[in-house]
Amino acid sequence: MIKKGIGRQIVLQYFIVVFVTLFMVEVIFSLAIRVYYYDTIYNHMSTHSTWASDFFQKFVRLNAERDPDYFTEMLRTFELDNTELMILNRKGEVEASSNAFQADKAIQTSDVSQAAAGSVGKWVGRQPSTGEMVMAVSTPLQVRGENRFIVRFVTSLEAVNSNLMKLSLLSAAVCLAVLALVTLFSIGLANSIVKPINNIRAVSAQMAKGKFESRIKGNYRYELGELAATLNYMAQEIVRSNQIKDDFISSISHELRTPLTGIKGWSETLTLGGFDPEETKLGMGIIAKETDRLIGLVEEMLDFSKLQQNEMKLVISRVNLKELLQETMLNVWAKAEQKGIQVKLEDRTVQNITVVGDGNRLKQVFLNVVDNAIKFSNENSWIHLVVSRTEPEKVLVEVVDTGIGISEEHLNKVKDRFFQVNHQGGGTGLGLAISQQLVELHHGEMDIHSELGVGTTVSVKLPLAEPEEEDLESTDTTGESAVSAGDGPDNKSGPDKEGEMR
């Protein structure tokens, strides 16, 4: 007995379809073979009755007046095996018969009445005297154009019906055999579907319990194969995400422990007292710096949490993109100076570029991108911020560096949350993930192209704001600004003739 489930449903549906089909075939076959046999018998007797009628016409013309026993000649000439030949008058009374036992009453079956009316009659029914199934065929016999007599052939159908029953039983046995084979086949088919499903279900149950190392084994085809591959891929991604999460916890623990250690050490040291003002100022500066670092880490995680829960609120306004990029360059100036990296802004547009968005969040995006470029660039190299118009309604900002680059293996994962190419580089691994989502909140796009050992280009495409009159005025002739090692805020000069910030 097949237990309840999809296997039973498959077998039951196959069984019903095949059973109904075979039943219809059996019924049609039985009716067709019965009609064929009955028509063959009828055609045989009808042909002989027509011959008898033609013979009677000739015989009457030649001998009727001189030989009143012409019925005897007809019975002898046209008698068939296993068939009774009768000559009736119009009233259905038997005038002559090949059977020694003649009916004592007139025959009133439909074939006789049809023959009396001038047509060939057929009747199938039970013989009143014997109760057996018979077929009767009657044809009128004419004398001088008048229907005077009827020739009637009667044959038993018992043998035919017996043969028909045997054929029906044989065909039914064949149908049952076919039904049994189809049922066995459907059980095998159901098992071929149910077993993989049960296997997939069992492995899925293990995954639900946290055993993500489990994998669905077997080369399944079609949808089942796709389902198995999807679940295996899901488990693989969960394992990878868990590993990334573990790495993140380890990394963030280190990131938090380092500034906390500095804060704790200097606070305990300063508590002892006895330091001159310079040393106290140095210690307080370190505490403030490490505190800012902690605040930055916490804010980064809070930003990511808000983005994941769709709770990030943007303060929308018109933002001058060039000014925002210049501010970004000033913010990273000190870090770039330490490595001797020159950061240059190259504006390829002929007018001020204005976008609609949250200036602080957009600045956060570019700060993160440029900061990464500095972190992974070699000393005494350069970073270009290129602003251009590639589409009528959009502006493209490219941050191009000549740093260490990213391998193809890691390139598709760098924007994943918690992912870090170099875990010793510090950070939470959330910067690019946050930047990606912030850009998308501004209806923009962010792409990363990189080649290991050559450099990386981060492209940020943003929609332009509706133009206003002040946006149409050009404010820079060369479109080029730079912050380079050795130059910085201490140099109080403003932009020179070439538009460079020194």
* CATH arch. level architecture of the largest domain: 2-Layer Sandwich
CATH superfamily of the largest domain: Histidine kinase-like ATPase, C-terminal domain
Q: Output the CATH topology of the largest domain.
A: Heat Shock Protein 90
How many domain units? 3
N-to-C CA distance: 88 Å
Q: Strand content of the residues, in percent?
A: 15-25%
Structural class: alpha+beta
| Mean pLDDT, all residues | 79
What assembly state would you assign to the polypeptide chains in this entry? single chain
Q: How many distinct beta strands?
A: 13
H/E element sequence: HHEEHEEEHHHEHHEEHEEHHEEE
Quick one: CATH class of the largest domain? Alpha Beta
The proportion of residues forming helix, as a percent range, comes to 40-55%
The strand line-up of the biggest sheet is 11-12-10-9-7-13
Number of contiguous helices: 11
User: How does the major sheet shape up?
Assistant: 6 strands, mixed
